[in-house]
Structures are given as C-alpha cells and as structure tokens.
Amino acid sequence: MRMKGRVKKHSLKFISAFLSLFLWVYVLNSEKVKFEKTVTLEYILPSDMMFSERPATEVTFMIEGPRAFVRTVAEREDRLVIDLNRASRGSVKRQLNFSVDINPTQLNLPFGMVVERVLPRKIAIKLERKASRILPVKPQFVGSLPDKVALMNVVLTPEEVEVYGPRSLIGKLTHLSTRPIELESLVGAEETQVEVALPDERLTLTSGHDIKLYYQLKAASANFELTNLPIKFLTHSKVITSQVKKANVKLLVPEKVMKNRSNISSTVQIWADIPADARGRVEVPLRVILPPSIHLLEIKPKTIIVNIQ
C-alpha cells in the first residue's frame, strides 16, 4: 500500500510539472507581439502602357499576433500582384494617373494574426502610352591613342537601332550613344564589339544587341619592324609551292610593350589562307596575327602567288 501511495504521489508531481511546463510554453507562444513584414509588389501592365514614373516596389505590413507564428510569417516570401489592366479602366477612357489601395486582407495570415497598418496604404500609379523609334547610334570614346596615331573610317554596324519606352521620353531622343570605348584598347585590331548605353531604365532595345565598331588607325611612322618572317599556309591541299616564303611587317608597338622585343617577334604570325576549291596558280592575300595592343601598319608583300596541285 505504501509503494502504491509513493508511485501515485510521484505521478501527480510529474503530471503537475508537465502541465506547468505546457501552460508556460502555451502562454509564452500565445503572447501577442507586433512586428513588421515587407512584401514585394508585382505589377501587370496594359500591353500598350508603361510607367511614366516608377511606383513603389514594396509595402510594409504592421502585424500583431501570437508569438508562435511570428517567425513563420516574417521569413515567408510574399508577393502581391497588382493588375493594372482593371485598375486603369475609367468610365469613359482609360485612366493614366490613379492610385491603388493595398487592402490588409490581401496578405494571407494564420488565425489570430491581424494587420494593423499598411505603409503606404495607397500606391500612386502614373502610366504613359508606349512608343518606339529607330535612332542612330554614335560611338563614345574615352582615353587617348598613342602619339601621332589617328582614328579613321569609323563605322558602326548596324548604324541604327530600335528602342521603345514612354512616349514622352522617346520623343525627346535624337540618337543613342555606345558605352564608353577605350581608345587604347583599339590598338591591335580593326573591329570590336560595342554596346548601346540606354539613358533611362524604362527604355528597351528591340534590335541592335549585336553591334560592331569597324575602324582604321593611321600612324605617321612605325616604331618597330620585323623582317623575313616565315609565311604559314592554311590549306586542305598537300602540294603547295611558292617562290615567296617570307614577309616583312611594320608595326606600331606601345612603349610598355617595347621592352620585350623578343616576345614581340615570337608572337607575330603571317598566314596565307588558301581557298578550299583553289587549283593552279592563285594570288592569295597575307594575314597577320598580332598580340593584343600591337597594330599593323604595313606588310610586304601584301599578296603572294602560289601553285596548288
């Protein structure tokens, strides 16, 4: 009997302790707390409209509710989608300037949580009709070329691009510029890839994503010359003969590269590209492959005669 009494007594103590702990956790988690939650806004625009001014992209919900759900709600990624197709319809014609109410009930919350405030509660919307236009592109250069070197015959391909955006902004544009092009980087080549710089984030290109700048550099004199460079033949034919097997080149070399003269001569290559279907006696142009920053001013001879069997 005494044993049963002791077991019963200890059981009651255990149950009391468990209930106390349960009630403490319950009270702690059911305690009302206040916190903020930032929600991203996504807009669905009418197909022929754009924003004339960028609206708010986020709103903050001031929420009160049980502590138990705070972490779940706070860390959850929520987005509110605002369909401006319905909001912009007026009684007679489509409205361009209006406001959109953010309803607290738009945020899905667990039972017991309520939204006290939304900041901002109203989102100002300013729309404008979309327009497009074909505009010329002008290169924008920065930096400088080596002394006595001039940039000539500059051509952009394509020369024009189509851009669309808000009508008021499109109407003011007369041309577009490229992103800054470093003049020093042009030495050693005759073409380079460039990008169009859009002056406003609301503008979008519909063409002109692949623009090349073609140019020529002209120098008063060369500062480096290589002679008797071997000519290499690029061909599918096994039997090729030519009386001319070497060529000379005059180069424009930056001062910082001139220090390693041996490296320059070992990296310059001269190739004769033989057409795949060529047969007999053919005149072939010579092509020079140069390291970066070195520019070709002259090659002698420019072409050679080859016999192909």
Name the descriptors:
309 residues, seven-stranded mixed β-sheet, RNA Polymerase Alpha Subunit, Chain A, domain 2, alpha+beta, single chain, 6 helices
What does it look like?
The chain has three domains: 28-120; 130-219, Beta Complex (RNA Polymerase Alpha Subunit, Chain A, domain 2); 224-308, RNA Polymerase Alpha Subunit, Chain A, domain 2. Mean pLDDT is 82; it is low at 22-29. The protein has helices at 2-30, 70-75, 84-87, 167-170, 255-258, 261-267, and strands spanning 32-44, 49-51, 58-66, 79-83, 97-101, 114-119, 122-138, 141-142, 149-157, 160-166, 176-178, 181-182, 191-194, 196-197, 204-205, 211-219, 224-234, 240-241, 246-252, 269-273, 280-289, 295-300, 303-308. Helices cover 17% and strands 47% of the residues. The strands form five sheets. Strands 2, 5, 7, 10, 11, 14 and 15 form a seven-stranded mixed beta sheet that branches. A seven-stranded mixed beta sheet has the order 18-23-21-20-17-19-22. A four-stranded mixed beta sheet has the order 4-1-3-6. By secondary structure, it is α+β, with helices and mostly antiparallel strands. 11% of the residues are buried. It contains six helices and 23 strands. Strand 20 and strand 21 (280-289) form a beta hairpin. The chain is elongated.
- Please identify the oligomeric state: single chain
SS field, number of helical segments: 6
Q: pLDDT below 50 for ≥5 consecutive residues: which ranges?
A: 22-29
SSE order, as H and E?
HEEEHEHEEEEEEHEEEEEEEEEHHEEEE
Structural classification: alpha+beta
Mean pLDDT, all residues: 82
**Major β-sheet profile:** 7 strands, mixed
Distance between the termini: 119 Å
In percent, how much strand structure appears in the residues?
A: over 45%
Q: What is the CA-based Rg, rounded?
A: 37 Å
What's the helical proportion of residues? 10-25%
Number of domains: 3
What's the β-strand tally? 23
